[in-house]
Amino acid sequence: MSFRLYNTLSKEKEIFEPVVPGKVGIYVCGPTVYKDSHIGHAVGPVIFDALKKYLSYKGYQVKLVINITDVDDKLIIEAQRLGISIEDLARQVSANYFEAMEKLGVNSIDVYPRATDHIGHIIKLIQRLGENEAAYEVDGDVYFDITKCRDYGKLSHRRSEDQMEGTRDLAGAGKRNTSDFALWKKSADDEIGWDSPWGRGRPGWHIECSAMSMEYLGETFDIHGGGMDLIFPHHENEIAQTETATSKPFVKYWMHNGLTRIKTKQTSGDWSEEKMSKSLGNVRTLKELLAEYPPETIRFFLLSTHYRRPIDFSDEAIVATQKGMMTIYRLLERVARITDEDVYAHACDVAKMEQVAQSDDDKQLRDAVTGGQLRYLEALDDDFNTAGGIAVIFELCTRLNRYIDQQRLELQENPSAKALALEAARMISTLGKIIGLLEKPLEKADSGAGDELAGELMELLIELRRDAKTNKNYQLADTIRDRLKQLNIALEDRPDGTGWRKE
Ligand SMILES: [Zn+2]
Q: How far is ligand 1, taken at its centre, from the CA of residue 424, in Å?
């Protein structure tokens, strides 16, 4: 199976072949640390962390870099507003960002380079452009001359005439062309700045990413990622300045994730969807969100949509995700209880599964599990379709729950069927782990109710049902079971008593 990836550059799915066989370099545009992150900022890191895990699973040696923009006009303005230094603001916001990433299981990032640690590299790159006559200085500001890049626009597929429109009329502040963009900006005395051949100043945003990505991944590397809103002008400009400096292709595959839309209620009472941005006042920070929901839910939610599609964020959507996800955790808990084994500790042993499958039912389950594994990997190979992969996991769960019910594994001593159920459950966890899901039991995943009172009431009902049975009042016992079933609560009679689970 070969991995196919949609490349924004060619607008096609392409077979993935890294620049250096066996090795993959990935660069993702990270946050500008001037305000706390919201869910939109978690999308890229979660997707590319999952992608790195998947490519590592496939045997590649992967290096993943996400940058931190810690010098920018937005930071200058926000720090002034708060009356603190830019350094303190950047440190504080980055710390919150890293904490959120850790909770979300984003733990495969090799480097989080900061722009301010790479000023020297940025200056050198601008000088290189100057040598190629593609950069020019106007009173302490340095611009990129886009007429020096013949194929400008090849990523965003915007016509070059669009870029050049109004060139003569609108060129201002000494720029040669309207679309020329800043590589270096002159800093006022009270603004943050570094000494450079052009006087004291600070880097433009686009050049930071070119300098840092090349520093860690070389002049030509495999995958450059970011949100779709970065295609133009940020990534277009990155390509223009880097390729003009090196005369080499910059990036082989451009991967862009869909944007997060938030559902908001309009004054008219209608709901509308809009792109999530920091300017929307009602956006909760990641920190707030992670305090409300288990981080696994947020990661699961973000990977439940194919990365190129927009993510519609709402509390209802998160709650629905959590409900679905809990059915998986509850099944794994169920198997752990039946077999008295740790489902998460080991990967699925396919050979063992072959060995213990005896009856037709067993063989059907075994085939469903191995077939599911294949379809899961096929989904990921098809432009990293994590949504398709997760759908396969749900199918396997339904299948395994049904097998356990049919075989009455809570009541029967059937070692081979239990061993088979254990391997099937381990396959579910094994598949999840490939993209950083289902790695360990969820806290309080046993009842799924998350509600002490519900647990106590269930104990009471189970006790009443037991008494009814003892008194041969089978009608009452059945009524209790049936009514609970209507509430999607299943009772499980086990040798050591009766348990329950939400379905
Ligand atoms: Zn960038």
A: 42
